[in-house]
Design brief:
single chain; 143 residues; mainly alpha; 2 domains; 3-stranded antiparallel β-sheet; 6 helices; 49% helix; 7% strand; elongated
């Protein structure tokens, strides 16, 4: 199986590469797919990020490139992992359930995902309002 499925828009991460030593699938957004497809068209390499100086033929640790990106953007103390957290935060703000966020992040324990649940109170507010409206409706019918 290829690590990136262009047909399914998925990135398969083998268990040896994952943090919790279990394989998992990352769903790739349309914008990511466009970038990957462009890189594939414009390269003769089998790798998304080829590296001639690497023994594997591809970029393994983007630490130097990340430092250059952060310097150019004048960003201090930004880690690559912060992008993962930011993405999860925006999923929560957009209304994604804790289950969906946990699945996207490959969390095995729901407690790892709980931090994002507190970012979006809109669904809570919606159901508080629904419950109150039901109570008022019932009370008004009895009067």
């Amino acid at each position: 199986m290829l690590p990136i499925s262009f047909a399914d828009q998925k990135w398969y991460i083998p268990k040896i590469k994952s943090k919790n030593k279990e394989s998992y699938t990352v769903i790739l957004a349309n914008v990511a797919m466009k970038i990957l497809e462009k890189r594939k068209r414009e390269s003769n390499s089998e790798w998304v990020f080829p590296s001639e100086g690497s023994s594997t033929g591809h970029l393994r640790e983007p630490k130097k490139a990340w430092r250059r990106i952060c310097q150019k953007a004048e960003l201090k103390d930004l880690r690559i992992h912060d992008l993962r957290r930011t993405h999860a935060s925006w999923m929560a703000i957009s209304g994604a359930s804790q289950y969906v966020i946990g699945k996207a992040l490959n969390h095995k324990d729901s407690r790892s995902t709980e931090i994002y649940a507190k970012l979006n109170f809109d669904p809570v507010r919606e159901f508080v309002e629904k419950a109150i409206n039901e109570i008022i409706t019932i009370a008004e019918k009895k009067n």
